[in-house]
Each structure stands twice: as C-alpha cells, then as structure tokens.
C-alpha cells in the first residue's frame, strides 16, 4: 500500500513540475504575446498560483484517498480477521458443543447402564429377600411349633408340680384314725425364736382371723431350741387374742421357749416320740453388782411368768415345778417324749400321722448355705475361732432373757 502511495505522489509531482515548466514556457510565450498582446502580468501570476494551489489540493486529495484506501484495506483485513475469528470461535463452540453432547450421551448411557445394573441388583436382592422371608417364615413356623411344644411341656411340668386339690379345712382337725389334718392357715417355727419370728406369726394370726375367724390356725414346730423370752411372750399374746382356734403342732423337738408355746397352747398335737424340754431361763449378766441384781430380778420375773403358767397347766406350784426339774436332771433340764409329756399336760394330743393339705406345690430343693460371719444377723451357723460350728446370739434388751436349751454351747454370745 505504501508503494502505491509513493508512485501516485511521484506522478503528481511530475505533473506539477511539468505544468510549472509549461507555465514557465507559456509565460515566455505569453510574455512575447504580452508584448504582442500586452497582457496583465499580475493576472497571469494569480492564475499560476491558483493552478499550483489546485495541484497541491489534488495532491492532498490523492494522499487522503491513499490513506483512505489504506484504512479501507485495514478495515477489510480486520473484517476478514473478525470473520476468521468468528468462524474459528464457531468451530470451537461447535467442537465444545460436540464434546458436551458426546459427554452427555456418555453420561446418559452410563446412567442407563447403572440404572439397569441397579434394577438387576434390586431384582436379585428382592429375590434373595423373598427367599430369606420364605426361610424366615419356615423358621418362625418351626419355632412356633417348638414353642408350642415347650409351652405344653412346661404347662404339663407345672401342672405336675401342683396338686389338683384344695386345702382341707376341718373344724375338728383330728380324725377318727388319729390323724391330724392341717390346712394352709399355718405358720412354721424352725430354729431359734426371735423378734422376726414373733412379728411373722403375729401378722399371720391377724391375717387368718380377718379372713375367717372360725377355721383353725396351725403353728407348726419342726425343731426349735427356744429363743427370746420377749419374742415368745408376743407369740403367746397373739395366740391368746385370736378369735379363731390356734393349734400348736410339734413334729420333732421343742425346748425352752418353744416348749412353753406347746404347753401353754389351748390345744397342742405331737408325734409320740417328739421331745419337749423345760428348764429355767438363762441370761448373761453385765455391769456392776447392782446391775446384775437388776438383771436377775428381770430374769426371775420371766421365770414367774412362763414357769408359773406351765406349773399351773400341770396342776402344781412353781416351786414344785422347779423341784421336779432338778429331780429329773442335775442341771434342771427336764426332757420328756411327747407320749410321756402328755401325762404332764405339756401336750394335749398324741397323733399317729399328720396330713398337711397346704402343700400343693412340689417342694424345691434347698441349696446348702455357705457359712458366714454374717450369720450373727440372722441366727445362721458359722465357725468360731476354734473352728467349731456355732450360732452367735445377739444381745437382748435389758428386760429380756433366753429360754434356750444349749447343753453343748452351740449357741454362744460374742465377747
């Protein structure tokens, strides 16, 4: 483009020079003609100057046209470049769209594949679930059958443990066959008699009276060496306050306080070779002489209370009762079999058999209890420092005493 501009410029300059030369020649000629025709020189100069300005304007115009042409050429080039860039952009955009489309197609294909796999897995899982549900239903059915069989067996076992009868309540429990019939209106005394024993017996006597004040109540003694005088006193008072008749039943052994309960009952029953033992109360005195005298006074009061009542039941005086004790034993422990004790009015009836209709359930086997020093709290057997089996007796209240048979010191006090 610059080359063309230079060429045009040279042509214009050449033309301008040629015109100048021509004008100069013409001037000479015209000068001659002026001379001939006598023309105005200023007019001629103005014409030449006008022509020169015209040529300059032409040159400027050509330059402008050349520049315009250059600009037009640049503009065209820019348009072409723009079109090229636009085409390239469109190609890139198209390529990007194609890539996105291909990726979308791939993703959709992958999604469809995953959905298909998911459906297949779902069907497999559903099939497995159905199979498991079927197995579970079979297992549950089998378990249900087994449970039903177990329940039947358990029910049968439980039923076998219970007697299909009810307790027998007799106004006169002694039958013509000399058999004593015991109902479930009963309470047991086994082991030492203590406060808990008195509370249990008193509460049950009240309960049975509130339920039926006519049917007999049975206090059954299997084996008891006696115990607290106060506890025995509370039991005797509960027996005396009962509207329902109370019968004491001795199966094996009753000494001291237990013997007093048997003897002082309105009616008592025993096996012929059950043993009853009476003796005076014993106590362990503490304190100075005055205190020991006071304790002795309380002990004597208990002896008068229980010994006096027993002597009265026998039809003798308290002194005579004491004398008979030491006649039968040097230590004052008067022991008799029930068949002989009946003659002394220690027991009312000797029975051949005892029928306990209250036992309607199969008795459970009692587990052997471990020996413990805690036996002090509940009158259980433990081991002393010498390795002997003993039962430690708790301290009694100052006004209480022990009516307890203890010839071998099995029952002991703690130091």
Please state the structural category. alpha/beta
Strand content: 15-25%
Low-confidence stretches: 1-5, 27-34, 368-378
The radius of gyration is 69 Å
Q: Which fold name is given in CATH as the topology of the domain at 179-360?
A: 2-enoyl-CoA Hydratase, Chain A, domain 1
Number of strands: 14
Shape: rod-shaped
How many helices? The count is 9
User: CATH homologous superfamily of the domain at 179-360?
Assistant: 2-enoyl-CoA Hydratase, Chain A, domain 1
Termini separation comes to 139 Å
Give the averaged pLDDT, no decimals: 81
Q: Short description, anyone?
A:
The protein has 415 residues and is α/β, with parallel strands linked by helices. It has helices at residues 2-37, 41-161, 195-211, 229-240, 257-264, 289-314, 318-328, 338-341, 375-378; strands at 179-182, 186-190, 217-224, 226-228, 246-255, 267-271, 275-278, 334-337, 349-351, 353-356, 382-383, 389-393, 402-404, 411-413. The N and C termini lie far apart (139 Å).
Topology record:
Elements: H1 2-37, H2 41-161, E1 179-182, E2 186-190, H3 195-211, E3 217-224, E4 226-228, H4 229-240, E5 246-255, H5 257-264, E6 267-271, E7 275-278, H6 289-314, H7 318-328, E8 334-337, H8 338-341, E9 349-351, E10 353-356, H9 375-378, E11 382-383, E12 389-393, E13 402-404, E14 411-413
Parallel strand pairs: 1-10, 2-3, 3-5, 5-6, 5-7, 6-9, 12-14
Antiparallel strand pairs: 4-13, 7-8, 11-12
